[in-house]
Amino acid sequence: MAAMVTRVLLASPRGYCAGVERAVETVELALDHYGPPVYVRKQIVHNIHVVRDLETRGAIFVDSEEEAPAGATIVYSAHGVAPAVHAASAARSHNVIDATCPLVTKVHVQARRYAAAGYTVILIGHAGHEEVVGTMGEAPEATILVQDVAEAEALELPAGAKVAYITQTTLSVDETSEIIGVLRRRFPHIHAPKKEDICYATSNRQWAVKEMLAEVDLLLVIGSRNSSNSNRLVDVARAGGVASYLIDDAGEIDEAWLDGVTTVGVTSGASAPEKLVEGVCDWFRARGVERIEPYRMVDEDVTFRLPVELRRELVLAESQG
Fold first, then answer.
1. 199-208: per-residue pLDDT in tens?
2. Are 17 and 270 within 8 A, CB to CB?
3. Do the domains at 2-16+200-295 and 103-186 have one common CATH topology?
């Protein structure tokens, strides 16, 4: 039971990344500036608590841009969209604010460039994930999705095909390098991105979990079920031999997990707000755990500017005010 737990270690870095901060702030500022309702295509970030908070402020989340009325203000989520979505919004005269993470935009640009240069583009990622759907929409006729090592081994391409790969930004660093290894062996002339596509926050959070595994008996990852980077943190811990569970908040902790556990590690995915970590800490405090401490301290100093459409509007409003 929880009474056996004597220490909780908090991973660093954890929680919000620059792309998520930017996306959430974009919706908040759009609501302040335009007033509700502001429509948001898909979940702005993959966290149910963030979505609910924004809904209470007047954001309306829709599955498709087609659901937003003509002329409405609509924010595209951090995961990016296909060109067809921009076209559909333009046809409905939407006031579009594109909160796509700049690191996702970089992958979209690569997809377009490789396709325009005649390459077959191999996208390493998870089928159905919003980021993958958006990226594949850039050059669907030239892009092939590969999800794992087996698919990389089975991939058949015409002899002499020009091949390049790109990746989803929220993948497991280790699994992705395995897949890339297979692709390089099978297609020795494959072109690679100049810089890894997996984002700094995803790799940093996986690194932080690996660093603390020797110290903990159990890892709790705070994040929503549909958060790719949060699921990967669970995978990293389990691959290292440590039991791990994904929880949306403290209410999902099962005391049975804590049998025989003395040290619990806690981390959170890149779309999970810090107040959820505080809630988990309070849960342990309420059960008599006094040692709740950071495991190393790592600062991330990455920031992204707000979307250009919103920056222009706010500057204009300020100059007229």
1. 999 999 999 9
2. yes
3. yes
